[in-house]
Design goal:
By secondary structure, this protein is mainly alpha-helical. The chain has helices at residues 3-33, 38-50, 55-62, 66-79, 100-120, 126-143, and strands spanning 53-54, 82-86, 94-98. 67% of the residues lie in helices and 8% in strands.
Length: 157
């Protein structure tokens, strides 16, 4: 193993350990301070980023069974955070979307998470936090499933 490969591996191990520690602390503080269950906050984040979704899409994204997803959505409906609506063209399809109250709660959850992160990142300069956000954004983008590219070029005769 070359020195460069070993140095990269060491850096990745260090990053993994730091990420794990930060994630545990942030998650613990978030659970202690947040007024809604973590699953509901994840649901709000997903709908806020993706717009209205079908139950099956929510279940797949959150890696839960359809019955587990139904229970989670039922709870969010009861809290007033989301609403169900039937598709106009296919009445079998039910769309789940944020309500105004859900949008407001999502903003509160985002502010809470930001304040918790600020606590742990307080030793960094604002430029370092921005750089970290940019780099983690690039990593997050790389984890999203690729959308197949459709070649719209028309064959010439």
């Amino acid at each position: 193993m070359t020195h460069q490969v070993q140095a990269l591996e060491d850096a990745l191990v260090q990053l993994g350990e730091a990420w794990s520690q930060l994630s545990r602390y942030v998650a613990s503080d978030f659970r202690a301070a947040c007024s809604i269950p973590a699953a509901q906050s994840h649901l709000l984040y997903f709908l806020g980023a993706s717009g209205p979704q079908r139950m099956s899409d929510i279940a797949a994204h959150m890696d839960v069974t359809l019955s587990g997803c139904t229970a989670m959505v039922d709870s969010a409906v009861a809290a007033g955070f989301v609403e169900r609506s039937r598709d106009e063209t296919d009445r079998r399809v039910v769309w789940i979307q944020l309500t105004e109250e859900g949008t407001q709660m999502l903003q509160q959850v985002r502010r809470l998470r930001a304040s918790i992160l600020a606590k742990y990142l307080s030793r960094l300069e604002p430029e370092e936090i921005q750089q970290m956000a940019t780099l983690l954004g690039r990593v997050a983008d790389a984890t999203r499933p690729e959308v197949p590219q459709v070649d719209l070029a028309v064959e010439r005769l």
